[in-house]
């Protein structure tokens, strides 16, 4: 086998631990690349769960302390899938050990912390990437290609939302396995960092920087039992967040996210309206892209539902045949493929830590605006 | 008012009596035409119902005997909205009196009867038309325009269905007000003449003649109480009918109709697949046309959902503004408008009685094939 | 004919002049009501256009001065279809003459003017109504019925948008026939009063009062030739407007409108998310309502696409048969029917002038907030 | 690792070689099973291609002669992914060696050959299965569960189609890599065995046996260059096939397949209409199921679009979280999982060779009817 092994050590074995492991395992079956990920070590605190996870996915070894993992000589890449409050510490330690670092989104608890991470990772000069996986849904990448081709002309509007409904019940606790996203101490924020961060990352990628925002947040269920203490405690996260924004290119935007939109499981949608064309995408049918092109003949003009499964669509030549859709997990496989290709070609795949910091700046401005009630300028990357 | 009055006498005041009256009343508000229909006389056997109908719609006079109506000097056009078994008698009598004749579909009980009607009407030389209204849904007319433009290339496939679910209950009687469609004596056939006739008319218009068919029919509920006799009687109509066909142009077709498709109220759909493009239409969203054009750029190719509400779409310049849809009843208004325009320009609007006879021939072949189990040639127009 | 004639005098013969005339003409064909509108007089300044309009629609007489019209003894109802800047003057004069008054939306140029109109109309004690027609799309009325039934439970979110794309071209002039909506002097505002007013009216009806808003507006094309002067002038209207809102019931909302959303002709949509159920509606398929009910069995739960064409759906028993859709113009017929029924039952049909004033207050707060950049309280009805 | 290894030897490395390999590789990451497939040996004639395939997927060894493979002691399961004309020979040889046998669909070239395979496999008493993978799309399995629950009541209609458009060009050769499906000698038939076989398998599973059919076939492009000879030769396959059918339960059916339906890449759809409920599925959105339940409240009744991604949906508890869709390849993973579970529980997973023989009988009747033009009885399983 000609490909070069790249030893991965993962920290965390939850939902993201599974999506990443699947990405590392599958990529070589579908993509021709110089590098081949090796599932070398999995790390987590609960040894029983860790062992089960490692066995299920074929991680060759395990560690219960990430500090040990990042020092291991046989590890090339440290992949961080832990709750948000430990991203910085692990990433910085790994970078200092000269490891490449992959980090789950959001990058950090806030912009200030993210700046430290970027400083360290860039000082270390190691390859790095943040898992904003939706960029690699083939339909979203196709949207990027269409936009880059100039077909849209001047952009007037951008709108994105990410709607879920899984926390409506007041009986749901905060904290604990699978529920740390409801615990402000672990998550930093609620839907803003968890869901809107995805919307913002895509928006920055497709439409450039955001200059100013005004936002509102709400916590519908004010108190929940905390799993750690067993007591009813104040809920510190935002259950819902909406904001208006102005992009640097002059376009206007609306963003919204909630976990209280009954009927929507994970409805991430975005739409972009340009002078000459518009694009719409929807995570619930992630294999389709809606495209309206004003250049089409007048009488037969309409929104096209593109079934993004052809060989000339992004990534799709590596999968099956036209008409046969792929799913959610494939976005991670693509991200691994692009990361490896980036190593091969010395062209880093985005979003890097630095790219992801920009999203943190927007989140900071959003949360600040929700608190002050004022339009708030977004800090820009240096 | 510059327009010339055209006195209409209608026979029948049921569902179709309402759609036609609405067509006559509205056409002059929306179309600039030389002729203006006058709702001169309504005719029906039940005097109380007739009076109520006439008053509601503004018919100036009433008649309880159609024989009297067709002889009236003040009537220019006789419009027939009665059950199928009386079309021929009324149409022939009206033609012999020199009246223009409009006839609800299907033209006749069968091809033989239809031939007599055509012979008489053509001998009389009077303007005539059959109400296959769906040709005038703007999206269907747009389909015709696209096909006529040659965009589809060689045609490979045609498929049509008309699905309803209103007769599933075995408690529904046959015959009586609103239910004569379940009575073979009044209707001639079941879904074949009622629903498939629409599908066939559109198909002949869009894709040319049908040469041969093989069919099956079924009567799911074998006995129903007859309203006329109060007794349980055998059901003589076909509840469902499906057939395979070959068109003269070499394309293959499937046709299906039923009143037992739970969940579909009036789902008439057709699709036509050509070498270069395909078209799909659906009565449940009649204001849209789906169009796939292989000539579109590869990466952004997809089915276009055309919202047929623009000023350059058929008929739509006469209605509102882009984006605002019209509905079912407008197909009749359009048919009136085209009939009047045909008088004005001496270019008869279709489908004429002769055109509609072709549909009867297909229905005859379908019913015959369902009975014999053999592929059956369709009689062609002389 | 048993029904009582109600003489209507209309002011204005533009787009709305047509929709209203059609409503008055058709209502008696489809609804059984005590009152029957008579198209007694049409009024407008351009005599040639007025005559053509009156003839086309059957208005019995004409007037070129609305001051004369409102004084005519033979007029029971004055219906105002003029640009926004003349609503108040005409409505007040008509009310002082004791006429019932119907007024196109938005009620007024702003809340202050609206208050005067409400004061006068209520002092006169005449029947009154504002043409927020979308309340009467059967699917929207069905949404209201579902909400009133309590099926949704506590409401968390409301989102509405009204997207168009007809003013993208910078060559379009402001002012003149059909284009007064681009002229701030005639229209008062741009999309806020024209389109968002519809969204707000529906929202207030479905979800109660709005307490506070933060907004942004934009004018993408800053200068356009003014039809009146022939000169290039500053554009005074908002081309786009988006705002965040909090309803009094604690729910959060996003509203957006623009005439620069390429691909959308008249895409008015709203969605409401409750604890137990959610509803979505879309003007481009106005005959459908999307409904998600969490009470449905878990495994087969999903958004239902309700084809609102059954006899037990609002208004639909008066039209055709299940599966056959109606369109845009029917909302006006329904509004006439409800107005007449309101007279008959002495139960005024909404929205009254007072109801419509609430929408003005929201518009005022939105435009003020867009100017100040602050969250702004909405003035509430006394 | 507690699970028992099960050594797989695969024959064929084409499109299906990849889908199966992926199934074997992934199943243990997502399903908790006693057996664990080991990719022990890959077999194919072209050694270079074979090596590349084996390396890409991690097959531990290779063989260039299937006769050697089926004799290997270290092989538990022989999986056949070759063109149709070699299924029987390999399957019978493997069975005689006591191997479990998995066979790509269709089972055989015709019913007679299939009978021999069933006889041998049952005589050998080895586990066996045919890869009609679409049964295991979660939405299709959900359809089966709904039907089995009795929700549909008496069935009236079944309709299925499988539309593709990839052979429209007359320049496409027959035979050769990826194109053996156009070569009658290798494939047996065209769309009938390739595509309709899928539709028939699902139909038999969901709706029971088919008693009689009438069919038509067409070969639109009569001659194509044969890759093997380099000469233009007659095309022996059916490009399109449609048939009418009656099921033993009294329901009527239409089936259609073609590779000439411009705009459809792999549009396999089926619909089933029962007295009380209906179901529709579509491969282009395979993660959704459309369901209409007449038992729902009248006013809010409609087709439900079920996003089949919840934990209580078939197979979905093994994947991600609600709202995140899986794709085509997962149907093969599920089939492997069910095969392994079947070994574990001694309850064979379907479709077995015997089950798949029933599909061959229907295909035989269809092709015979297309040739004779008569309604043809379908041979039933003994």
Describe the structure.
Chain A has 382 residues and is of the alpha/beta class. Chain A folds into 2 domains: 4-133, NAD(P)-binding Rossmann-like Domain (Rossmann fold); 135-377, 2-Layer Sandwich (Dihydrodipicolinate Reductase, domain 2), CATH 3.30.360. In chain A, 33% of the residues lie in helices and 25% in strands. The first copy, chain A, is built from 10 helices and 17 strands. Chain A has helices at 15-30, 47-57, 66-71, 87-96, 111-124, 138-148, 184-187, 191-207, 330-345, 353-372, and strands spanning 4-11, 35-43, 61-63, 77-80, 100-103, 128-130, 155-163, 210-218, 223-225, 232-234, 240-247, 252-258, 267-274, 277-282, 288-293, 303-307, 376-377. Chain A has a 9-stranded mixed sheet with strand order 16-15-14-13-7-12-11-8-17. In chain A, strands 3-2-1-4-5-6 form a 6-stranded parallel sheet, with helices on both faces. A two-stranded antiparallel sheet of chain A has the order 9-10. In chain A, helix 1 packs across helix 9, helix 4 runs parallel beside helix 5 and helix 5 (111-124) runs antiparallel to helix 10 (353-372). Chain A is globular and about 65 Å long. Chain A starts with a strand and ends in a 5-residue tail after the last strand. The model of chain A has no long low-confidence stretch (mean pLDDT 96). The interface between A and D is large, with 40 and 40 residues.
Q: What would you say about this model in short?
A:
4 copies of one chain form a homotetramer. By secondary structure, chain A is α/β, with parallel strands linked by helices. Helices cover 33% and strands 25% of the residues of chain A.
